[in-house]
Design brief:
The complex is a heterodimer of chains A (933) and B (431). Chain A has 933 residues and is an alpha/beta fold. Chain A is built from 26 helices and 34 strands. A seven-stranded mixed β-sheet of chain A has the order 15-14-25-24-23-16-17, with helices on both faces. A six-stranded mixed β-barrel of chain A has the order 29-33-30-32-31-34. In chain A, α9 (337-347) packs parallel to α23 and α16 packs across α17. Chain B has 431 residues and is an alpha/beta fold. Chain B has 17 helices and eight strands. Chain B has helices at residues 22-27, 32-40, 43-52, 65-70, 97-104, 106-120, 134-149, 180-187, 216-228, 230-236, 267-274, 308-313, 332-346, 352-369, 377-387, 397-411, 413-422, and strands at 83-88, 124-129, 165-170, 211-215, 244-251, 257-262, 284-288, 322-327. In chain B, strands 3-2-1-4 form a four-stranded parallel β-sheet, with helices on both faces. In chain B, a hairpin with a 5-residue loop joins β5 and β6. In chain B, α2 (32-40) packs parallel to α6, α2 crosses α9 (216-228) and α3 crosses α6. The longest helix of chain B has 18 residues, at 352-369. The radius of gyration of chain B is 22 Å and the shape is globular. The termini of chain B are far apart. Classes of the chains: A alpha/beta (933), B alpha/beta (431). The interface between A and B is large, with 42 and 38 residues.
Chain lengths: 933, 431
């Protein structure tokens, strides 16, 4: 600790920080632009100037930039010194010489860092009387709007986009006051992190294009803490709404997870909530439930019915259970823990299916088992970023867990920090450190069958999946002689394994990453074993196992059979005279099993009831469809890949019949059984859940319950400056409608109530006087860029060495695969099909958001150009895919070939999960032929 | 060894004649310093001799050359790859001294590069040449080829263990590239922005490797210092700073030109004897002593010795030592407007005060010159001269731009006020 003196007051600071960091962390208001807590200092904007005094006798001092000056012990500075005040006001005046002063029509207005800093700096009247420069704006794709004339040239956008996120297609052009930040030509921003420009830009150059279409000022937006539902990482978000309509999603800072940034899938995927495909009320198949009345494609004509009628029908169906019928519940990894639990409670654990494919079920069970065994602690995203060596096994992170890929892009910088420290350059001197470290990266090895968008900062290792397993086992053997050696490993692979092992051993904080996306249980186990070996050798090693969906791990913790068992039971029931009733929770089965088996199950079932928010192929074949709430219309818990239970809270209170799935299920349960416990609020569901599954008791701690009162009040969930609240519904009523009742959370739903320090999981927004932009977050952190004052949101559910409630943890220690995999042997005429995930398209819900849909390209079959030449196909030519192993019924399907020069030979990468793409169990062997056009 | 010359830098230069080829240069005693250094001196001894000579950088800042070299890490722990970079990006308005040396005696500079690279342990050298210097590029290229063919460049120079590869790079053209860190960044093929220091270029310069950036004239002195010794070099000067200096003059003088004279030659001698005085019937209004980014001096300063320390004591800087002379019929507002137009245009756009402040000063000067000035414009101009001063901007570009403006506002206050009061430029025909 050091002491600095700011305007005569002594403050304890870390001498490793700079003065701006120190001042802001102590709550002092010092304006800035080019500095950003995640981007470091470059000294471009000159806004954070303060007067530094040589000693206590120095009365004149000299101007220094706070962001570029170390907070060394005894430093004396003044923020209030007139020369510093004058200079800071002048910086604004200079910036304003070309700023258009168009705040009234600017979408940044009201949450603009430039507005805030202008007021803070005290510049008011314009003296510049000359013409301003004019730029032409660019089309940047569906996510981001461009208005270059507002630019104050802080350089944050290019620093984030290029240096932080690795993008190539945004840059700065021109010189002097004509500098232009944009693309070389109009076009879609390529980076999957482009949406962060909206938050990184301190003014209205880059704004949210999807918000623009339904624009509302920040002060009129209601907000609630939420969790992203578009992958398994569990990034924290703030969905914002007005008039009961979801308008945007912005980042919600979580120090251990997403920090300041989201991926574009997470930021823009939310629009599925507002799509016409939403189910807004109960629907019934045309006819009196007779399944013979459907359309030729098997779908039914669904017609609205009223709520009580729907519940009566459901109750009647459930009662048939007593009359010998079987009730099968199919859960979902994209539904909340509470919804899945309610279904499980209704149908009984033995009839509860997780609703996922066998392979995924097996992989998730393995992930859960490994998390429970914990050969190494699980890394948070922050710890991933803090690692000093990493090995990624099989997983294509930029497409399956984008925010983790972004963290790894920062992780490789550690070596340059060490280099900089040697030259007496602190890590926050961003430009200098990047210059010094340009040839120096901490080791990042990515073993994958195809190129990834992280390869530019990594040592990419290309191999077919079985060979990646063998390579990883060789790494394990090199670290742990007790692990089996890999026979017949080519010499270069052997050497490579040695190199990887050496790099991991040299690191203090090595990180091993694998995931379910690669489809290999062996890889998951080997990754954990490698991490374990490193822990045993004294390293602070971490492992991180990615999972596919927002609640995959929550579902695994509840237990239950894979989907195939439920489908088989439903299909078999008809012939056995025991036709089942299928209750499908927030799940489109056609995305998880092949068409024939889903068709057979739906046809064999006596009744099919679907609870979901979005109409999909399965819902279209249901007899009864109940309108489920999305994340925005309900509260609940999701468990991310590290086993962290996180609460999302209800933002929208629709007037129609949309309700949380657990509410529908509980109402039906109570209607069938008057003795069943009635759940009026989320806390009661969680109480029931933790009572039944004590191992999940930490779920309670994910966030305080609805009874929480601070200073005797609920928490205000609308901002203090919400305007026109009495006029908003004037077309319907001249009275101010009461805020919606919220039984699930301690929010008022209005601007009344408490807003101040609170548990981090509950902040409905971050807003503080004079800091109206997202930069106001500074005031809520223990230090800028540090943990929130309210502590980390969420609670870890999985205790190392604990038991999963879904099944007893195996007693044997973590083992590598029992059988040593053979080296990959390409087959003549046949290729090993492996999944190719897409950041835009492979996620079911975000694919329904129009802006994301614009980014989805047609499914393809990736082929190594040499393999393609064998088949006589060129880029874009149609290929016929006939799956041979495992045998699969149905006709071959056809996809356009995509030549992938980095793809391993003998392997074909099939894009998966894209809208309307048939499900295929992967990996599989397929015969490929050039299709006749 | 040739006799010690009084005008070492220009002794081989004959106005209007092509430069000496390698044979001619050798006959005139050329490449003796390379032979001496490689045969008789350790790199450290070369460095010591240059330090003892008190040679100061001739690019304008006047940093002691030997001291600059001494910051390059040496020894087994140091990065083996080091660079010597010649700053031949002579873009300072009114300055053409390096051009004279480059076009007039290219072998002299190449010899300086070889000896200096030997001193700092660089095996690669770059000449970062102003893009418009086409003749210099041609002559340097030819000279480098000759030197290469005769074993002065390349592997094992003159059979020694020292090797040097020399590259010629013609700039794409920004004034900012004259700033050494921006020059290095541009050399790497990146946007020419100045860098934060530390790290200093001597530690992490071009491509992150130890690099020394020296001006053309600085390097041309080095062979002579090695040939004739530090004491001789110091003795050439008339003041504290050793050696000769290529002075120049442009503007309203009788004989614009460049001359090699003892360092510390008085301004009056330069102006009246060498430049032939003011044009007939004109009087001196003011001059910029060392390029566009130095403060004005006037007739009262004519007895100032033109060395680094003396000019600074007179309130300006020696800079490049090339005078820009304005007579009494020159509108000072128009002169400053022209200068600030240059500086505003050449701002790299990185830091706010420079990027947005300089265009404002240009617009104000333009308005005043066009008869559209307002009383408070002078306050705003004065504010810029204070707030764009040293330490407030990222690099020295804006402070350099403010030097003539700050002094000009004081010297020519009455002229500015008259422009504003009369709403037109008094030097232009009344409308």
């Amino acid at each position: 600790m050091a002491t600095i003196h700011v305007d005569g007051t002594a403050y304890p600071v870390d001498p490793g920080d700079h003065l701006l960091h120190a001042c802001l962390s102590h709550g002092l208001d010092l304006p800035y632009f080019c500095w950003h807590p995640a981007l470091g200092s470059v000294g471009a904007c000159r806004q954070c100037a303060v007067t530094q005094f040589h000693d206590e006798h120095d009365t004149h001092g000299r101007l220094v930039m706070a962001c570029m000056t170390a907070a060394t012990d005894g430093t004396r500075i003044s923020i209030a010194d007139p020369q510093a005040v004058e200079f800071r006001a002048s910086v604004i005046e200079w910036l304003m010489t070309n700023h258009p002063h168009d705040c009234p029509v600017c979408e940044e207005g009201g949450e603009c860092h430039l507005q805030d800093m202008t007021l803070m700096s005290g510049h008011v009247y314009r003296r510049y009387r000359f013409r301003k420069r004019t730029h032409r704006n660019q089309y940047l794709g569906p996510f981001v709007k461009h208005e270059m004339n507002r630019c104050i040239a802080c350089y944050r956008c290019v620093r984030f986009y290029r240096e932080y996120a690795g993008g190539r297609d945004l840059d700065v052009f021109g010189a002097h006051n004509h500098v232009y930040f944009g693309r070389q030509a109009d076009g879609v921003l390529e980076s999957e992190f482009s949406g962060n420009l909206v938050e990184v830009c301190p003014t209205g150059v880059f704004t949210d294009k999807t918000l623009s279409a339904v624009y509302t000022r920040k002060w009129d937006l209601h907000s609630a803490p939420s969790v992203c539902v578009h992958c398994g990482l569990g990034c924290n978000t703030f969905p914002n709404a007005r008039y009961g309509e979801l308008r945007r999603v912005i980042n919600r800072y979580h120090h251990e997870l997403n920090g300041y940034f989201l991926c574009d899938r997470g930021r823009y995927g939310h629009a599925f909530v507002s799509q016409p495909s939403r189910i807004r009320g109960p629907l019934q198949a045309h006819g009196d439930g007779d399944r013979g009345n459907g359309n030729s494609d098997g779908s039914s004509d669904l017609r609205p019915i009223d709520r009580s009628h729907a519940l009566e029908q459901l109750t009647a169906m459930l009662r048939e259970r007593g009359a010998g019928g079987v009730l099968i519940g199919i859960g979902s990894p994209r539904a909340s823990l509470e919804a899945n639990f309610a279904l499980r409670a209704l149908v009984g654990p033995e009839h509860f299916s997780q609703g996922i494919a066998d392979a995924e079920h097996r992989l998730l069970a393995a992930v859960l088992e490994l998390l429970q065994r914990a050969p190494a602690p699980v890394a948070t995203l922050r710890e991933a970023e803090a690692a000093d060596a990493a090995l990624v096994l099989g997983e294509n992170l930029p497409d399956t867990a984008p925010r983790l890929a972004l963290a790894l892009r920062q992780m490789v910088r550690h070596a340059s920090f060490a280099l900089a420290a040697h030259e007496q350059v602190p890590a926050w001197q961003d430009a200098a450190v990047r210059d010094l470290g340009r040839d120096t990266r901490s080791p990042l090895f990515i073993a994958s069958p195809d190129a990834t968008r992280l390869d530019d900062v990594a040592t990419p290792l290309r191999a077919a999946p079985p060979d990646i397993v063998r390579l990883s086992l060789a790494v394990l053997h090199a670290l742990d002689a007790a692990a089996p050696a890999v026979p017949d490993l080519p010499e270069d692979q052997q050497a490579l394994a040695g190199r990887i092992a050496q790099a991991l051993q040299r690191a203090q904080r090595p990180l091993i990453i694998a995931g379910t996306g690669a489809g290999s249980e062996a890889l998951l186990r080997t990754a954990a074993a490698i991490a374990g070996a490193l822990v045993r050798s004294g390293r602070a090693a971490r492992m991180l196992l990615t999972v596919p969906e927002c609640n995959s791990l929550g579902l695994a913790l509840l237990g239950g059979a894979p989907l195939s068992a439920a489908l088989a039971a439903a299909a078999a029931g008809a012939s056995a005279g025991q036709a089942a009733t299928l209750l499908v929770l927030e799940n489109d089965l056609y995305r998880r099993a092949d068409r024939a088996s889903v068709d057979a199950a739906l046809q064999g079932a006596r009744h099919v009831v679907v609870l979901d928010h979005t109409l999909h192929a399965t819902a279209r074949r249901a007899q009864l469809v109940l309108p489920a709430a999305t994340f925005a219309e309900s509260s609940g818990t999701l468990i991310n890949c590290e086993g962290r239970a996180q609460r999302f809270f209800q933002l929208l209170f629709p007037q129609d019949e949309v309700a949380a799935s657990w509410r529908w299920l509980n109402e039906a349960a109570c209607a069938c059984d008057p003795t069943a416990a009635r759940w009026d609020g989320l806390d009661q569901v969680i109480a029931a859940l933790t009572a039944e599954l004590p191992a999940l008791s930490a779920v309670r701690a994910a966030a305080p319950g609805a009874q929480l009162r601070v200073d005797g009040s609920r928490i205000a969930s609308a901002p203090h400056r919400e305007s026109g609240r009495t006029a908003m519904y004037a077309d319907r009523t001249v009275h101010e409608p009461p805020p919606p009742a919220n039984a699930d959370a301690p929010y008022t739903g209005s601007m009344e109530g408490y807003y101040g320090p609170m548990p981090a999981a509950l902040y409905p927004f971050f807003w503080t006087p004079a800091w109206n932009s997202e930069q106001g977050l500074n005031k809520f952190q223990q230090e800028v860029g540090g943990p929130l004052r309210g502590g980390p949101a969420g609670a870890h559910v999985i205790q190392a060495g604990g038991e999963s409630p879904g099944g007893a943890a195996p007693a044997v220690p973590a083992a590598v695969p029992a059988a040593m995999p053979a080296a990959f042997a390409p087959r003549a005429g046949a290729w090993l099909l492996i999944p190719q995930h897409r950041v835009f398209g492979s996620d079911e819900l975000s694919a329904r958001a129009p802006a994301v849909a614009e980014r989805i390209t047609a499914p393809t079959l990736g082929l190594n150009p040499e393999d393609a030449a064998l088949l006589g196909v060129g880029d874009g030519d149609p290929v016929e895919i006939a799956i041979e192993e495992p045998p699969r019924p149905g006709p071959p399907h056809r996809l356009a070939a995509e030549l992938r020069p980095a793809l391993a030979r003998g392997v074909a990468a099939l894009s998966v999960g894209l809208p309307d793409q048939p499900w295929v169990s992967l990996p599989a062997w397929a015969r490929l032929t050039r299709a006749r056009a | 060894m040739p006799p010690a010359p009084e005008r070492p830098l220009t002794r081989n230069i004959r106005p209007g004649a092509p430069p000496l080829d390698l044979a001619g240069y050798e006959r005139a005693g050329g490449y003796q310093a390379v032979r001496k250094a490689l045969r008789d001196l350790s790199p450290h001894e070369v460095m010591q001799e240059v330090s003892d000579s008190t040679l100061r950088g001739r690019g304008g800042a006047g940093f002691p050359t030997g001291k600059k070299w001494s910051f390059v890490p040496q020894g087994a722990q140091a990065p083996p790859q080091k660079y010597l970079v010649v700053n031949a990006d002579e873009m300072e308005p009114g300055t053409f001294k390096d051009r004279l040396l480059l076009e007039g005696d290219p072998h002299q500079m190449i010899e300086g590069v070889i000896v200096s690279a030997y001193a700092i342990g660089a095996q690669t050298a770059y000449i970062f040449l102003r893009g418009e210097y086409l003749l210099a590029a041609e002559r340097l290229g030819r000279a480098a080829q000759e030197a290469q063919a005769h074993g002065y460049l390349g592997e094992h120079i003159l059979g020694s263990s020292f090797s040097l590869t020399l590259h010629l790079h013609s700039s794409a053209g920004r004034y900012m590239c004259g700033e050494e860190t921006a020059l290095l960044t541009a050399l790497e093929g990146r946007r020419a922005l100045p860098r934060a220091k530390p790290p200093f270029p001597q530690v992490a310069g071009a491509w992150g490797r130890p690099s020394v950036v020296n001006n053309v004239e600085t390097l041309c002195n080095v062979p002579h210092i090695i040939n004739h010794g530090a004491a001789w070099f110091r003795g050439l000067a008339r003041g504290r700073d050793g050696g000769t200096k290529i002075y120049g003059a442009s503007g309203h003088v009788q004989r614009p030109g460049a001359w090699e004279l003892p360092m510390g030659t008085p301004l009056r001698e330069l102006l009246e004897e060498h430049a032939g005085g003011m044009r007939a019937g004109r009087a001196l209004r003011a001059l910029l002593p060392g390029g566009a980014s130095t403060s004005f001096l006037t007739a009262e300063h004519l007895d100032v010795a033109m060395d680094f320390t003396s000019v600074e004591m007179a309130g300006s800087r020696l800079g490049t030592g090339t005078l820009i002379v304005a007579d009494d019929q020159t509108c000072p507002v128009a002169l400053l407007r022209n200068l600030e137009h240059f500086f505003a245009q050449e701002s790299c756009g990185w830091c706010t005060p420079c990027r947005d402040g300089l265009p404002w000063t240009e617009r104000l000067l333009e308005a005043i010159e066009d008869g559209e000035g307002e009383e408070r414009d002078l306050e705003i101009l004065a504010m810029h001269t204070r707030l764009l001063g040293p330490g407030k901007t990222f690099c020295a570009h804006a402070p350099g731009a403010m030097a003539p403006l700050e002094s000009g506002l004081k010297l020519f206050r009455a002229d500015f006020e008259r422009h504003i009061r009369e709403r037109h430029c008094p030097w232009k025909a009344a409308h």
